[in-house]
Structures are given as structure tokens and as C-alpha cells.
Amino acid sequence: EQFQLLIQIRDKVTEANNGVRTVRNMRWQVADRTDRLTAQQKAEFARLAGTMMDTLTFRENEVYQTRNQSGQDPLNYPIKLNNKIAALSGVVGSGEFKPTNQSREAFTRLSRQLDAELAALKRTMDTSLPALNAILRAAGLPEPKPSTEELPPRRNAIAM
């Protein structure tokens, strides 16, 4: 039972981290496409993309503490869902015994919260991308696709 719960925890942490990676990948793709549009196309695209990225960034910040830069920052900024779920592995794996009901309840509660955040990320992209993609198709540019692929840092990137 302990091993099974630890595997579930690992899988949830992976889901959380993949959600963050997807947002960051989308941010990169949107900035890349924005740079390649004409001034007229760019205005409408930036408006739509800005709204989408604001929502995605809000969700990213619910899943992952983006303000942590140094070892002292966790003292100043609260941990988010990915760290809370990951911290359960220390409790569940701290000895050779069956997981407590409290550990299972905490995992269930945090998993539901994460699932809601990830569903909101998906809904945002599902509703926003068609309009963005129409502008990009008209401009002959590739459409952004949600992905966990790590992309290179952008030079002179403008945060959206």
C-alpha cells in the first residue's frame, strides 16, 4: 500500500510539473509567433494571447511557486500544489508502515485541487487557441500546440 501511494504521488507531481511545462511552452510559442506577425496582425493576436496567457499564468502560479529564486524564498512565499503533493512522499515513505488515513485524505484533496487547475488550463487553451490559430493560419505561421517540450530561452523575450 505504501509503494502504491508513493507511485500515485510521483505521478501527480509529474502531472503538476507537466502542467507548468505546458504553460511555459505555450508562453514561448506565443511570444515567438507575436514577433513574426505584421503590426496589424500583431495587435489582435497580442490582445487574444494576452488574455489567454494571463489566465494560464494565474493557473501556473496556483500549481507552482514561481517567485522562488533562492533557498530563502520558500520562507517568504507559500508552497503550491506541486510541492504540497511532493511533500507527502516524505510522510508516506518515512518508515515501513501502511499509509495513514490522513495521508490518503491529504493526497485525495490535493489531487482534486490539482485536477481542477489542470482542467482549467486545458479549458483555457481549448477556448483561446482557435481564434489565435485563425490569425496565425492567415499569416502563414505555425499554430501553437500545447506541449511539455522544453524550448530554448528566447533572447529579448517580452513576458506576457
Task: Please give the structural blueprint.
Elements: H1 2-35, H2 39-63, H3 73-76, H4 81-92, H5 101-139
Give the gist of this structure.
The protein has 160 residues and is mainly alpha-helical. The protein has helices at residues 2-35, 39-63, 73-76, 81-92, 101-139. The chain starts with a helix and ends in a 21-residue tail after the last helix.
Label this structure with key terms.
single chain, 160 residues, 71% helix
Round the mean pLDDT to the nearest integer and report it: 91
H/E order of the elements?
HHHHH
Care to count the β-strands? 0
Rg estimate, integer Å: 19 Å
Q: What would you call the shape?
A: elongated
Structural class: mainly alpha
Unreliable residue runs:
none
Gap between N and C termini, in Å?
Answer: 44 Å
How would you describe this structure to a colleague?
Helix 1 (2-35) packs antiparallel against helix 2 (39-63), helix 1 runs antiparallel to helix 4 and helix 4 runs antiparallel to helix 5. It contains 5 helices and no strands. The protein is 71% helix and 0% strand. The mean pLDDT is 91. The longest helix has 39 residues, at 101-139. The protein has 160 residues and is mainly α. It is elongated and about 65 Å long.
